[in-house]
Amino acid sequence: MQRKTFRNMQCPIARSLERVGEWWSILILRDAFYGTTRFDEFQRNLDIAPNMLTRRLNALVEEGLLEKRQYSERPPRYEYVLTQCGRDFRPVLLAMLAWGNRYFAPEGVSVQLVDRETGQAVDPVLVDAASGEQLKMGRHVVAAGPAASERTRARIASAATHMTGS
């Protein structure tokens, strides 16, 4: 059965899922943020089959989240480095980290975000870049953008009657 593609959907969430919606991709990006760059390191850290790792790395390179760089000629060896697009995924990972700690860590926090200077744990929040204000349910809502199709506008208008915020 052929997997559905979200590439042509006029939804930034769907299009993003097309690029990183497979769990191995997100874990590879997580490890790349931890400093992992080499195939054998990814494989060891994730305990992932080599063929699956190859497919996921190639997909992340093709989508522009990772860059493949040769670091050895004999034998040819490559490392995988985050691109700007990949680095911009960091807030998504940090939001997932905080959400996972809040709801899915019955044994307690095993990984946390801390302030490097103080060592204090911090809780990431989304803020509006222009005002610096925290995004809040009810005040900040999803709206159709200038490029929205009529179908997208209708879907968002219909959802607006049920939404309390974004």
UniProtKB/TrEMBL annotation:
It comes from the Bacteria. Residues 11-108 form the HTH hxlR-type domain. Keywords: DNA-binding, Transcription, Transcription regulation. PROSITE patterns: HTH_HXLR (PS51118). InterPro entries: HTH_HxlR, WH-like_DNA-bd_sf, WH_DNA-bd_sf. It holds the Pfam family HxlR. GO terms for molecular function: DNA binding. This is HxlR family transcriptional regulator. It comes from Cupriavidus plantarum.
